[in-house]
Design a protein that fits this description.
- Helix content is 21%, strand content 32%.
- The chain has 381 residues and is α/β, with parallel strands linked by helices.
- The strands form 6 sheets. The protein has a 7-stranded mixed beta sheet with strand order 1-3-2-6-10-12-15, sandwiched between helices. The protein has a 4-stranded mixed beta sheet with strand order 9-8-7-11.
- Helix 1 (48-63) runs parallel beside helix 5 (233-245) and helix 5 packs across helix 6.
- The radius of gyration is 23 Å and the shape is globular.
- The N and C termini lie far apart (66 Å).
- 43% of the residues are buried.
Length: 381
């Protein structure tokens, strides 16, 4: 059995195959356990990527649902300061996770491609979280052994764009999704000095032409962020979108398409930045084509933001929501200057703001709420 696979459903027919890489431990960067490379460019250790990778693996194994292309395999590699096993949340089998060195990743991705090649109707997901450096369209994804060879630090990196293009041309799976959760800060000196951006993983130009979409966590030339020992900002919003925030109703079911996934992530990232819960990070895409990837098994919950206009009324308002038949009713527990974020199921609600001091007008607003996250503005002036 492939030592990099943590879930294998042995699907005979079209399936979804997932490769997840999370790199946080970099022995040859600042504060690393090995000999420091001269080409660290200020980069140091990370804690978010392995956590992000594990959370995403859990989501695919427990929640991913595509009746036409069910989950086939999940490949997982992580580099973290403390080696931890991965427990498959469905089978409860513990796996020793291979470190995300270039050698391991190269072997794992070639094996993953073989699974992807088994049926042209397959969907492939590639996810990377860790250090990334770029120049123009070139982007290097740094594996844990980046800098081990001080004379050629990119001997521990993947040339992402070439890898993605060769997958597009060489892999039989017609639908391919790439998610890159990494900084894209320009490091012209490094790339120009060594004249490369890493290993291409695959060889040959190929003749296929898959639908290949890339979701980046941040703009070219910009940084990506995360909190210590938590999933990254982008992965947090990605999971929020996959859990229903990016869903739409079609043919009496709820599904998430590539386009709706992007719309939801964009909204969640912008709202979090506006709330100053995270730094500004704009996630672009390349090659976006609309098709369904995930089908919910029930009606999604929706995070609704309720606020007063003017904003100074927020800390005086009693905020309430209810269904027209009063079967469901929720009230904000305490006064606050901040808007009220409340989670409800899809449906029609009456939102209200009332005041004890008569400084503002009471207000009601009826709204049918659906994902991703509607904003209810109660005009109380």
């Amino acid at each position: 059995m492939d030592k990099f696979i943590v879930h294998n459903a042995n699907i005979d027919g079209p399936a979804t195959h997932v490769a997840i890489i999370g790199v946080g431990d970099y022995p040859h960067l600042l504060d690393g356990s090995g000999e420091k490379t001269d080409h660290h460019d200020g980069m140091s250790q990370l804690t978010s990527p392995p956590v992000s990778a594990r959370h995403l693996a859990d989501w695919f194994i427990t929640k991913y649902h595509n009746p036409d292309k069910p989950l086939g395999t999940v490949t997982l590699l992580c580099s973290e300061s403390i080696e931890l096993k991965y427990s498959n949340p469905v089978s409860n089998i513990d796996y020793t996770i291979a470190k995300a060195t270039l050698k391991n990743v190269k072997t794992a991705l070639r094996a993953w491609k073989k699974h992807c090649d088994k049926n042209e109707e397959n969907i492939t997901f590639f996810f990377y979280c860790g250090h990334g450096i770029s120049q123009g369209q070139d982007m290097a994804l740094l594996m844990s052994d980046y800098g081990e060879d001080n004379d050629n630090p990119f001997d521990g990196a993947i040339d992402f764009k070439t890898f993605q293009e060769r997958m597009k041309r060489n892999c039989l799976a017609t639908h391919q999704i790439y998610i890159v959760d990494a900084c894209r800060v320009s490091t012209d000196t490094l790339i120009e000095t060594f004249g490369e951006v890493g290993d291409t993983i695959l060889s040959g130009p190929g003749t296929e032409s898959a639908i290949s979409t890339i979701f980046y966590s941040t703009l070219a030339g910009a940084k990506a962020y995360g909190k210590k020992d938590k999933p990254s900002s982008f992965t947090t919003m990605l999971l929020k979108a996959l859990n229903g925030g990016g869903a739409h109703d079609q043919n009496n079911d709820w599904r998430i398409s590539t386009t709706r996934l992007k719309e939801a992530i964009d909204l969640f990232m912008k709202r979090a930045a506006d709330d100053e819960r995270q730094k500004v990070q704009t996630p672009p895409t390349d090659g976006l084509v609309t098709y369904d990837i995930h089908f919910l098994k029930g009606i999604p919950s929706v995070e609704v933001r309720v606020q007063c206009n003017p904003a100074e009324a927020n800390n005086r308002a009693k905020l309430l929501l209810k269904t027209s038949d009063n079967k469901e009713k929720k009230q904000r527990k305490e006064l606050s200057e901040q808007p009220w974020d409340v989670e409800v199921q899809v449906g029609e609600y009456i939102f209200s703001a009332t005041f004890d001091d008569n400084q503002f007008n009471n207000q009601n607003h009826k709204k049918y709420v659906t994902p991703p996250s509607p904003l209810i503005n109660l005009n109380v002036q």
